[in-house]
Amino acid sequence: MPEISEPRPEGEQPRSIRLTDPRALRAYAHPLRMSLVGLLRSIGPFTATRAAELTGESVASCSYHLRILAKYGLVEEAPGGRGREKPWQATARYTEWPEYSEDASVAEAADALSAAVAERYFERVTRAMENRHRLPREWQEAEQFGDSLLHLTPEELTDLGERINALLRPYEGRESDASLRPEGARPVSILRIAYLDQEIPDSEEE
Protein backbone atom coordinates (compact mmCIF):
# COMPACT_ATOMS: atom_id res chain seq x y z
CA MET A 1 0.00 0.00 0.00
CA PRO A 2 1.13 3.62 -0.50
CA GLU A 3 2.85 5.33 2.40
CA ILE A 4 2.56 9.01 3.30
CA SER A 5 6.20 9.95 3.90
CA GLU A 6 5.42 12.66 6.44
CA PRO A 7 2.62 13.16 9.01
CA ARG A 8 -0.44 14.95 7.67
CA PRO A 9 -1.60 17.82 9.90
CA GLU A 10 -5.31 18.45 9.68
CA GLY A 11 -6.14 20.50 6.57
CA GLU A 12 -2.61 20.33 5.19
CA GLN A 13 -1.56 18.21 2.24
CA PRO A 14 1.43 15.91 2.90
CA ARG A 15 4.60 16.54 0.92
CA SER A 16 4.85 13.12 -0.71
CA ILE A 17 3.39 9.66 -1.07
CA ARG A 18 5.65 6.63 -1.50
CA LEU A 19 4.60 3.73 -3.73
CA THR A 20 6.03 0.31 -2.87
CA ASP A 21 3.34 -2.05 -4.19
CA PRO A 22 4.25 -3.29 -7.72
CA ARG A 23 0.59 -2.95 -8.72
CA ALA A 24 0.55 0.71 -7.66
CA LEU A 25 3.85 1.35 -9.47
CA ARG A 26 2.54 -0.17 -12.69
CA ALA A 27 -0.76 1.68 -12.37
CA TYR A 28 0.94 5.06 -11.98
CA ALA A 29 3.16 4.47 -15.04
CA HIS A 30 0.17 5.13 -17.34
CA PRO A 31 0.71 8.47 -19.19
CA LEU A 32 -2.83 9.79 -18.63
CA ARG A 33 -2.73 8.91 -14.94
CA MET A 34 0.53 10.78 -14.48
CA SER A 35 -1.00 13.75 -16.31
CA LEU A 36 -4.12 13.69 -14.13
CA VAL A 37 -2.12 13.60 -10.91
CA GLY A 38 0.12 16.42 -12.15
CA LEU A 39 -2.86 18.58 -13.08
CA LEU A 40 -4.60 17.93 -9.77
CA ARG A 41 -1.46 19.01 -7.94
CA SER A 42 -1.12 22.22 -9.91
CA ILE A 43 -4.70 23.37 -10.57
CA GLY A 44 -7.01 20.92 -8.79
CA PRO A 45 -9.40 19.95 -7.36
CA PHE A 46 -11.59 19.25 -10.39
CA THR A 47 -14.15 16.80 -11.72
CA ALA A 48 -13.78 14.13 -14.40
CA THR A 49 -15.60 16.49 -16.77
CA ARG A 50 -12.98 19.19 -16.21
CA ALA A 51 -10.23 16.57 -16.48
CA ALA A 52 -11.58 15.64 -19.91
CA GLU A 53 -11.46 19.29 -21.00
CA LEU A 54 -7.87 19.64 -19.80
CA THR A 55 -6.55 16.40 -21.32
CA GLY A 56 -8.64 15.98 -24.44
CA GLU A 57 -9.75 12.53 -23.27
CA SER A 58 -13.34 11.38 -22.74
CA VAL A 59 -15.12 11.94 -19.44
CA ALA A 60 -15.58 8.17 -19.07
CA SER A 61 -11.86 7.55 -19.57
CA CYS A 62 -10.85 10.24 -17.07
CA SER A 63 -13.37 8.96 -14.53
CA TYR A 64 -12.02 5.43 -14.87
CA HIS A 65 -8.38 6.48 -14.48
CA LEU A 66 -9.19 8.74 -11.51
CA ARG A 67 -10.80 5.76 -9.76
CA ILE A 68 -7.69 3.65 -10.42
CA LEU A 69 -5.52 6.41 -8.95
CA ALA A 70 -7.80 6.58 -5.92
CA LYS A 71 -7.48 2.82 -5.46
CA TYR A 72 -3.74 3.26 -4.96
CA GLY A 73 -3.97 6.36 -2.78
CA LEU A 74 -2.73 8.95 -5.29
CA VAL A 75 -6.00 10.91 -5.46
CA GLU A 76 -9.11 11.15 -3.32
CA GLU A 77 -12.55 12.69 -3.44
CA ALA A 78 -12.51 16.39 -2.56
CA PRO A 79 -15.19 18.13 -0.48
CA GLY A 80 -18.00 19.97 -2.21
CA GLY A 81 -19.24 17.37 -4.68
CA ARG A 82 -22.82 17.39 -5.91
CA GLY A 83 -24.48 14.32 -7.35
CA ARG A 84 -22.33 12.49 -9.87
CA GLU A 85 -20.07 15.53 -10.42
CA LYS A 86 -17.65 14.79 -7.63
CA PRO A 87 -14.36 16.69 -7.56
CA TRP A 88 -11.03 14.94 -7.06
CA GLN A 89 -7.85 16.13 -5.39
CA ALA A 90 -4.28 14.84 -5.15
CA THR A 91 -3.31 13.27 -1.83
CA ALA A 92 0.26 14.66 -1.85
CA ARG A 93 2.48 17.11 -3.71
CA TYR A 94 5.04 14.53 -4.86
CA THR A 95 5.26 10.82 -5.61
CA GLU A 96 8.23 8.70 -4.51
CA TRP A 97 9.15 5.08 -5.22
CA PRO A 98 12.12 2.81 -4.39
CA GLU A 99 15.45 3.48 -6.08
CA TYR A 100 16.47 -0.06 -5.11
CA SER A 101 14.65 -3.14 -3.87
CA GLU A 102 15.62 -6.72 -3.06
CA ASP A 103 12.16 -7.71 -4.29
CA ALA A 104 12.51 -8.36 -8.03
CA SER A 105 8.85 -7.52 -8.75
CA VAL A 106 9.17 -4.16 -6.97
CA ALA A 107 12.49 -3.38 -8.68
CA GLU A 108 11.10 -4.21 -12.12
CA ALA A 109 7.96 -2.13 -11.63
CA ALA A 110 9.93 0.78 -10.16
CA ASP A 111 12.37 0.77 -13.10
CA ALA A 112 9.46 0.69 -15.57
CA LEU A 113 7.87 3.67 -13.81
CA SER A 114 11.16 5.58 -13.85
CA ALA A 115 11.49 4.92 -17.59
CA ALA A 116 7.92 6.14 -18.20
CA VAL A 117 8.57 9.29 -16.18
CA ALA A 118 11.84 9.93 -18.06
CA GLU A 119 9.98 9.63 -21.37
CA ARG A 120 7.39 12.10 -20.10
CA TYR A 121 10.17 14.50 -19.04
CA PHE A 122 11.73 14.30 -22.52
CA GLU A 123 8.41 15.03 -24.25
CA ARG A 124 7.73 18.05 -22.03
CA VAL A 125 11.25 19.45 -22.43
CA THR A 126 11.02 19.03 -26.21
CA ARG A 127 7.74 20.98 -26.30
CA ALA A 128 9.27 23.68 -24.12
CA MET A 129 12.25 24.02 -26.45
CA GLU A 130 9.97 24.22 -29.49
CA ASN A 131 7.91 27.02 -27.94
CA ARG A 132 10.54 28.99 -25.99
CA HIS A 133 10.88 31.59 -28.79
CA ARG A 134 7.46 32.88 -27.70
CA LEU A 135 8.72 33.70 -24.19
CA PRO A 136 9.82 37.17 -23.12
CA ARG A 137 13.55 37.73 -23.31
CA GLU A 138 14.06 37.65 -19.54
CA TRP A 139 12.56 34.15 -19.35
CA GLN A 140 14.60 32.89 -22.29
CA GLU A 141 17.77 34.16 -20.63
CA ALA A 142 16.80 32.75 -17.23
CA GLU A 143 16.01 29.23 -18.44
CA GLN A 144 18.75 26.65 -17.97
CA PHE A 145 19.73 23.82 -20.26
CA GLY A 146 22.97 21.91 -19.83
CA ASP A 147 24.75 19.11 -18.05
CA SER A 148 27.78 18.44 -15.87
CA LEU A 149 30.00 15.38 -15.68
CA LEU A 150 31.25 14.90 -12.12
CA HIS A 151 33.37 12.16 -10.58
CA LEU A 152 31.58 11.28 -7.34
CA THR A 153 31.22 8.50 -4.82
CA PRO A 154 27.72 7.17 -4.05
CA GLU A 155 27.86 9.01 -0.72
CA GLU A 156 28.81 12.31 -2.41
CA LEU A 157 26.02 11.93 -4.97
CA THR A 158 23.50 11.31 -2.19
CA ASP A 159 24.75 14.35 -0.30
CA LEU A 160 24.56 16.49 -3.44
CA GLY A 161 20.95 15.45 -4.00
CA GLU A 162 20.04 16.32 -0.41
CA ARG A 163 21.62 19.76 -0.74
CA ILE A 164 19.80 20.45 -4.00
CA ASN A 165 16.51 19.45 -2.38
CA ALA A 166 17.25 21.77 0.54
CA LEU A 167 17.73 24.67 -1.88
CA LEU A 168 14.37 24.00 -3.54
CA ARG A 169 12.27 23.43 -0.42
CA PRO A 170 11.73 27.12 0.48
CA TYR A 171 9.87 27.59 -2.82
CA GLU A 172 7.57 24.54 -2.55
CA GLY A 173 4.87 26.25 -0.52
CA ARG A 174 4.13 28.63 -3.37
CA GLU A 175 2.43 25.86 -5.35
CA SER A 176 -0.48 25.54 -2.92
CA ASP A 177 -0.47 29.11 -1.55
CA ALA A 178 -0.59 31.79 -4.24
CA SER A 179 -0.12 34.53 -1.63
CA LEU A 180 3.51 33.40 -1.24
CA ARG A 181 4.32 34.03 -4.90
CA PRO A 182 6.08 37.32 -5.68
CA GLU A 183 4.90 39.41 -8.60
CA GLY A 184 6.08 37.90 -11.87
CA ALA A 185 6.40 34.35 -10.54
CA ARG A 186 5.36 31.64 -12.99
CA PRO A 187 5.41 27.82 -12.81
CA VAL A 188 8.91 26.48 -13.56
CA SER A 189 9.71 22.76 -13.89
CA ILE A 190 13.12 21.80 -12.54
CA LEU A 191 14.37 18.32 -13.43
CA ARG A 192 16.83 16.52 -11.16
CA ILE A 193 18.42 13.60 -12.98
CA ALA A 194 21.76 12.14 -11.94
CA TYR A 195 22.93 8.72 -13.15
CA LEU A 196 26.12 6.69 -13.40
CA ASP A 197 27.31 7.31 -16.97
CA GLN A 198 28.25 3.85 -18.19
CA GLU A 199 29.06 5.10 -21.70
CA ILE A 200 32.21 6.80 -20.44
CA PRO A 201 34.91 4.31 -19.41
CA ASP A 202 36.43 4.71 -15.96
CA SER A 203 39.95 6.14 -16.03
CA GLU A 204 42.51 5.73 -13.28
CA GLU A 205 45.42 8.01 -12.68
CA GLU A 206 48.81 6.31 -12.95
SSE topology sketch:
Elements: E1 3-4, E2 16-18, H1 22-28, H2 31-43, H3 48-55, H4 59-71, E3 75-77, E4 88-90, E5 94-96, H5 104-131, H6 137-142, H7 154-172
Parallel strand pairs: 2-5
Antiparallel strand pairs: 1-2, 3-4
Organism: Streptomyces wedmorensis
Protein name: Winged helix-turn-helix domain-containing protein
CATH topology type of one domain: Arc Repressor Mutant, subunit A
Give the number of DSSP strands. Answer: 5
Q: What general outline do the C-alpha atoms trace?
A: globular
What's the total helix number?
Answer: 7
Estimated helix fraction: 40-55%
Beta-strand percent range: 5-15%
| Average predicted local confidence, pLDDT | 91
**Largest sheet geometry:** 3 strands, mixed
H/E order of the elements? Answer: EEHHHHEEEHHH
- Which class of one domain in CATH terms? Mainly Alpha
Q: What is the CATH superfamily label of one domain?
A: Winged helix-like DNA-binding domain superfamily/Winged helix DNA-binding domain
Q: What class do helices, strands and sheet pairing give?
A: mainly alpha
Question: What is the rounded Rg?
Answer: 19 Å
Distance between the termini: 51 Å
Poorly predicted sequence stretches spanning 5 or more consecutive residues: none
CATH architecture of one domain: Orthogonal Bundle
Strand order of the largest sheet: 1-2-5
Protein name: Winged helix-turn-helix domain-containing protein
InterPro entries: ArsR-like_HTH, WH-like_DNA-bd_sf, WH_DNA-bd_sf
Organism: Streptomyces wedmorensis
